Amino acid sequence: MTTTDIHRTIDAVWRIESPRLIAGLARIVRDVGLAEELAQDALVAALEQWPTIGVPHKPGAWLMTTAKHRAIDQLRRHALHQRKAYALTQEIEAQLEASIVDPDVMLDDPIGDDLLSLVFTACHPVLSTEARVALTLRLLGGLTTTEIARAYLVPEPTVAQRIVRAKRTLSQAQVPFEVPRGDELSVRLASVLEVVYLIFNEGYAATAGDDWMRPTLCEEAMRLGRVLVGLAPAEPEVHGLLALMEIQASRTAARTGPGGEPILLGEQNRGRWDQLLIRRGLDALARAESLGGAERPYTLQAAIAACHARARSADETDWSRIAGLYDILAQRLPSPVVALNRAVAHAMAFGPATGLAMADELRDEPLLRHYHLLPSVRGDLLGKLGRHAEAREEFERAASLTRNTRERNLLLQRAATSARSASTR
C-alpha cells in the first residue's frame, strides 16, 4: 500500500471513528475541547506512523489507545489539578491495561451513551445556532474547518472562531457530558434535530453561492440522522426527521439540469428519483407513525414529502391531502414559513386565487420581509391568474432578495417570461 493509499485510509477511518473516539475521550476527561485535541493528536500520530508500520488491524482501537496515552501525559503535567489528574490517570491506565487482553475495550460504548452524550453536548442550546452547526459538523461529521467554511461560504477563520468559542462556552458553562433525562430530554432533543435539519436544508437548497445544492451536507445530515435513530430508537421525531430527509434527498439527481440549473418539483423527471431512498424514507415514516408521532412536526413534513414520492406524475399528486397535512402542521408548528407553504398547498388544491389570498395575508409579516420565497410564491400565483405584469415585479423582487446565483437566474428567467406574457395581452 502506497503512502497516498494509507493517507486515504486514515481519512476514511477518521470520518468513521472520530465521533466515537472524541465521545469516549470526553466521557473520561469531561471536556469536549480537550477530547478533540487528544483525538487530533492521535490522528497526527497515525499520519506519522502508519506509513511505516502499516494500518493496524483495529484502527479505531489504535487511535483510542494512542489518545489515552496522550491524555495520561497531559494529566501528569497538570500539577494544579493533581488529585483529579491522579484519579483520571488511574482510570485510563486501567483501561489501557485491559486493552492488552481485549483491544475492543478501547471503543466500548454501551448502547451508544458516549456518542449520544456528544450529540447533546455539541447541540446544547447554550451555544448559538451557527456554533452548534459548526461544532456538530466538526465533532460528529468529522469535517475539517476548511470543509465547513467551504460548505457555508464563510471565511475559514470565522468557522475556526465559532468552534473555539463553542468549546470555550461549553467549558465555562460547565455543561455536563451526559444524556439529559426527564423533561429536559425532549427540549434538548429538539435542539439536536433542529441542528441536523439545518445542515440538511443548507445542502438541499443552498442559501448563497453558485450551486443550487450541496449534496455533501445532505449526506452528512442523513448520516447523523441514522446515528440518532440507532441511539434513540423509541423517539418518533428522530424517525420522522430521517424520513423527511431521505424522501427529500431522493429527488437530488432530478433537481438540477446538465448545467447545474434548478429544476422545480413539478418539472422534474421522476424516473430519476432514488427509489431506495424513497423506500427507506417511507419505512422510517411508518416507524414514526407507529410510535405515536403522526402529528409531530417532522413526521407531518415527512408525510407531505411522501405524498409527492407516491405520485407517479405531478398531476397525480394528492394536493388535498397535502393541504390537510399543512393545516395540522400550522397548528402544531405555527410559523410564517409554514403558513407560506400552506398557501402554496391550498393554491394547488383549491385554486391560485385561494392561495394568493392566503399569501397576501403574510405580506406584512416582519419575518418574511426579506424572505425571497414570499414574492416568488406570489409571482407564481399571480402568473396563474393572468396578472403577468404584477408577477414580473414579484419575481424581480424575489431575485433581488436571494443570495444564491442559480436561484436568482431562475427567478429572473421567470420574470422575463412574465414580461413577455404581459406584452402579448
UniProtKB/TrEMBL annotation:
InterPro entries: DUF6596, RNA_pol_sigma-70_dom, RNA_pol_sigma70_r2, RNA_pol_sigma70_r4_t2, RNA_pol_sigma_r2, RNA_pol_sigma_r3/r4-like, WH-like_DNA-bd_sf. It holds the Pfam family Sigma70_r4_2. Coiled coil: none annotated. Residues 19-79 form the RNA polymerase sigma-70 region domain. Residues 188-288 form the DUF6596 domain. Transmembrane segments: none annotated. Residues 121-170 form the RNA polymerase sigma factor 70 region 4 type domain. This is RNA polymerase sigma factor. The lineage of its organism: Bacteria, Pseudomonadati, Pseudomonadota, Gammaproteobacteria, Lysobacterales.
